[in-house]
Design brief:
The chain has about 150 residues and is an alpha+beta fold. It has helices at about 10-25, 30-35, 55-65; strands at about 35-45, 50, 70-80, 85-95, 100-110, 115-130. The N and C termini lie far apart (about 35 Å).
Length: about 150
């Protein structure tokens, strides 16, 4: 299976890869998102580790079962060859109705077919009020005319 754009990345294809990842995660469809990763993908996500596509899918299912009204913006930070670094922010509310904004960085490594082999994430989050929310588009893909991450000064 191939997931274009393929490495080695140019600035244009790295930006495209980041937006495709953002769009996938904003779908909150764990089975669909998991197809972007190798069968033996390795993840570090906070204190959780996934060591296969199946484990990554389970992690995403747990995540989105707890993080309601999830909206994410990713931005390219750096790239070279088959690696991309991104920064991102996302907002969600928990079962009690408390809103959060999470900030993070990810380092990605891809196989020759464009599937992500390694994902290392560092994430911090803070509670916010409903009024402090910035990401208010309808659930799903961020509209093309919606401000990106840098527009918010995050």
């Amino acid at each position: 299976m191939s997931r274009p754009p393929l490495p080695p990345f140019t600035e244009e294809t790295a930006i495209e890869k980041v937006r495709l990842a953002e769009d996938g995660w904003n779908s909150r469809d764990a089975a669909k998102v998991a197809l972007a990763y190798t069968l033996d993908t390795k993840w570090r996500n906070r204190v959780e580790f996934a060591n296969s596509r199946e484990e990554a899918q389970a992690l995403l299912t747990r995540k989105w079962n707890k993080e309601h009204e999830y909206r994410l913006i990713k931005e390219l930070w750096a790239f070279t060859g088959n690696r991309i670094a991104v920064r991102y922010a996302y907002e969600y509310r928990n079962d009690s109705g408390q809103w959060f904004r999470a900030y993070g960085n990810e380092n990605w490594e891809f196989d020759p077919d464009g599937l992500m082999r390694d994902r290392h994430a560092s994430i911090n989050e803070m509670p916010i009020s409903e009024e402090q929310r910035k990401f208010r588009w309808p659930l799903g893909r961020r509209p093309d005319d919606h401000p990106g991450l840098s527009s918010f000064g995050f």
